[in-house]
Design brief:
Layout: E1 4-6, H1 10-14, H2 16-19, E2 27-32, E3 38-43, E4 48-56, E5 59-68, H3 73-88, H4 93-103, H5 107-119, H6 127-140, H7 142-145, H8 154-165, H9 177-197, H10 212-216, H11 235-248, H12 253-268, H13 272-276, E6 283-284, E7 289-292, E8 301-304, H14 307-318, H15 337-347, H16 353-366, H17 371-378, H18 396-413, H19 420-432, H20 436-455
Parallel strand pairs: 1-2
Antiparallel strand pairs: 2-3, 3-4, 4-5, 6-7, 7-8
Helix pairs in contact: 5-9, 6-9, 8-9, 11-12, 12-14, 12-15, 12-16, 16-18
């Protein structure tokens, strides 16, 4: 309630400090008898403002109208009359004030709230993804960040998307069609969150989508997925290059770690972050499996240890220095670009971790294993409407045979082992060169050894 009531005047407000002591803390409120419900607030620092206060159905309604002397007493009374009429007509001032605040939400504030919301969700964004979202909006739309969402139009978005596509935004070297689409998708996610999060009076929608014109005008760039991978004809060069690098660069632990990690990617199809984050407490060499608990899609992944993978893990275990399998020190390696440049230069072929992942997927397809199994090995989610996929359980035990098939496909292509077709041809040629008696003798010996093996 107001501290006291009297008929306010401009002279009283102006000279208040000369005749009255300012409050030691907090504020005093003086009600205006000329306009019931209007009060003057005076703080300990001498700031003066006009406010509305009204009790409606046991609920206190209040709203700050403005600061004196920017708002005069007469202007305050006129504004108070309008506001009090709205209150008496059923308007909730608290809701109205929040609706006004919501209507002034900036893109930067919406981005912060969106990221906090995602952080509290069952599947929160990874710190790296959160940083990427912030960087994208601030790099390509720093002028939008401080602007109210109501003041960002579809045309603004369309123009900015075109500028990023053409590399004309802020002179950024990363500006490209792919970056333009990524920027627009992040902006769309924040706007869609704001549409549902910030409401006006009675829950009315304050904002509209502002990326729709990109679809209407067919402005999305739709940059195709990269198809780069290590071709079958290049696998020998790559694997031989790995061996040569290990032998010649033992003085460069980071390079050796990256060589092992790349080879691991070729034979498992894992992402770089999953490989670099693999810790020894998730590797069971004796039981023949390992698992990834933090994956891109949030689903844990258990994979078998094939012969080649076991060789890599055994080699890494001998060089163990900490908790992580692929690290020359006891931290997760986040940026191996320097080592990667050294490796690709030495091998004479440019490729990265995701190229190794695509190489694994290509060889998995060539080996003839089913699509469900390939998805599981790559830890890709199946369509939620695919009921059958929900019944297919594939742990390391079920995946060892298909994983071994992929391994064999890679090794055959690299010339590391004899291909099945070559062995069949050699066997047929051998049989063709034998006499009938030699064939009978061979069959007798094979059958005899088979019986011994079964009884033994």
């Amino acid at each position: 309630m107001p501290h006291k009531k009297l008929k306010l005047t401009e002279s009283f407000i102006k000279n208040y400090e000369k005749k009255n002591a300012l409050p030691a803390k907090g504020r005093v409120e003086i009600g205006d008898t000329n306009m019931p419900g209007l009060s003057l607030r005076i703080t300990a620092t001498g700031n003066k403002s006009f406010a509305i206060r009204r009790q409606v159905d046991g609920k206190r309604q209040q709203k700050v109208l403005g600061q004196w002397p920017v708002m005069t007493l007469e202007e305050a009374r006129l504004e108070a009359k309008k506001v009090l009429f709205d209150v008496d007509s059923g308007t909730d001032l608290n809701e109205a004030e929040q609706a006004q605040v919501n209507g002034e939400i900036t893109l930067g504030r919406a981005l912060d709230d969106y990221l906090n919301h995602r952080h509290k969700s069952p599947k929160p964004l990874k710190p790296k993804t959160e940083t990427q979202y912030r960087d994208l909006l601030r790099l390509y739309s720093s002028d939008f960040v401080k602007r109210s969402l109501l003041n960002i139009s579809e045309q603004d978005v369309a123009d900015r998307h075109q500028q990023i596509t053409e590399g004309k935004i802020l002179g950024q070297r990363k500006s490209s069609p792919a970056q333009a689409d990524l920027w627009a998708r992040v902006l769309r996610a924040v706007i869609n969150f704001a549409i549902r999060e910030y409401r006006g009076l009675s829950g009315e929608q304050l904002f509209q989508g502002i990326t729709g014109s990109l679809s209407h005008n067919r402005q999305w760039n739709h940059v195709p997925r990269k198809q780069s991978h290590i071709r079958k004809s290049q696998l020998a060069q790559v694997l031989d290059g790995f061996d040569s690098y290990r032998a010649s660069r033992s003085d460069y632990p980071m390079g050796i770690v990256c060589i092992d990690a790349l080879e691991f990617a070729i034979f498992t199809g894992l992402r770089r972050g999953e490989i670099m984050g693999l810790s020894w407490n998730r590797v069971n060499l004796s039981a023949g499996y390992f698992w990834i608990d933090k994956t891109k899609n949030g689903s844990p992944l258990e994979l078998p240890i094939t012969d080649t993978v076991k060789q890599i893990l055994t080699r890494r275990h001998k060089a163990k220095v900490g908790d992580y399998v692929f690290s020359p020190k006891d931290v997760i390696i986040d940026d191996p670009r320097k080592a990667m440049r050294s490796i690709t230069k030495a091998i004479g072929l440019s490729f990265g971790f995701h190229d190794c992942r695509r190489t694994f997927a290509s060889n998995a397809e060539a080996s003839g294993i089913g699509s469900y199994t390939i998805k599981r090995l790559l830890n890709h989610k199946t369509n939620r409407d695919d009921v059958t996929a929900g019944y297919v359980v594939q742990s390391a035990d079920e995946l060892i045979i298909p994983a071994a098939k992929v391994e064999r496909e890679v090794l055959e292509s690299a010339g590391r082992i004899e291909s099945s077709s070559n062995m069949d041809n050699k066997l047929m040629n051998l049989l063709g060169s034998l006499s009938d008696d030699e064939k009978r003798q061979m069959m007798f010996e094979l059958l005899s050894s088979n019986k011994v093996a079964k009884t033994g």
